[in-house]
UniProtKB/TrEMBL annotation:
One of its GO terms (cellular component) is membrane. GO terms for molecular function: oxidoreductase activity, acting on NAD(P)H, quinone or similar compound as acceptor; quinone binding. This is NAD(P)H-quinone oxidoreductase subunit N, chloroplastic. GO terms for biological process: defense response to fungus; NADH dehydrogenase complex (plastoquinone) assembly. It comes from Brassica oleracea var. oleracea. Transmembrane segments: none annotated. Pfam families: NdhN. Keywords: Membrane, NAD, NADP, Plastoquinone, Quinone, Translocase.
Length: 208
């Protein structure tokens, strides 16, 4: 009985051998996904910008500074992820410009807010009398506070895409009314950082 039992223990059952054969023939889904990924990634092409970073490559900074001084009012288009416009903003700071950051949402009439004293009605909550406070013009107030070494004031307008055509036309004419003022308006988004003269976006040159 002992020898017979030993023989039974040495002989492997057929179901076990079949399972081993099936395991050697089957392919795990993980390996299939890897092969598919390899096939899909074979067509990807990388450039130098992908390894260094698009926000670090600045071959157009010189043209950016020239266009700001030439046109004085620029419409910019930034990538959706943000961060690229800071490189161009810092270069203007290095030139000696000071900044006034304004959001186009809730700006009201740009001419009244930037060049004239404008009223503000605080919330009265139904118990206090309705009051009206007047604030100084945003551009003229900051121009008067600039140090003598400043080159000028840059009015950087965020979300300028919500402004109407007439409001954009006024912003394009603002540097002619205040010669030491430059206007940068964020008018939309694009795959890379790009800019155009604001007068061209507002169709001001065509009307002239």
């Amino acid at each position: 009985m002992a020898s017979h039992a030993a023989c039974i223990q040495r002989v492997a059952p057929p179901c076990f051998e079949a399972s081993l054969a099936n395991k050697s023939k089957t392919i795990s889904p993980f390996s299939v996904n890897i092969t598919r990924r390899k096939r899909r990634s074979s067509g990807v092409r990388c450039s130098l910008v992908d390894f260094i970073g698009g926000d670090l490559v600045k071959p157009d900074i010189g043209r950016w500074l020239e266009d700001v001084e030439k046109h004085k009012a620029i419409a910019i288009y930034t990538p959706h992820e943000g961060g690229y416009e800071g490189r161009y903003l810092n270069r203007l700071k290095e030139q000696g410009y000071y900044f006034l950051d304004i959001s186009a949402r809730g700006l009201g009439d740009p001419e009244t807010t930037l060049l004239n004293p404008y009223p503000v009605c605080p919330a009265h909550l139904g118990k206090q009398p309705i009051a009206r406070w007047y604030y100084p013009p945003e551009v003229d107030y900051r121009l008067s506070a600039l140090p003598p070494s400043a080159k000028g004031l840059v009015v950087w307008i965020i979300e300028a895409k919500v402004l109407s055509k007439s409001e954009l036309q006024f912003l394009a004419l603002l540097p002619s009314l205040r010669p030491s003022v430059r206007v940068i308006a964020e008018c939309g988004n694009w795959r890379k950082f790009m800019w155009k003269p604001l007068a061209e976006i507002a169709e001001l040159a065509a009307q002239e």
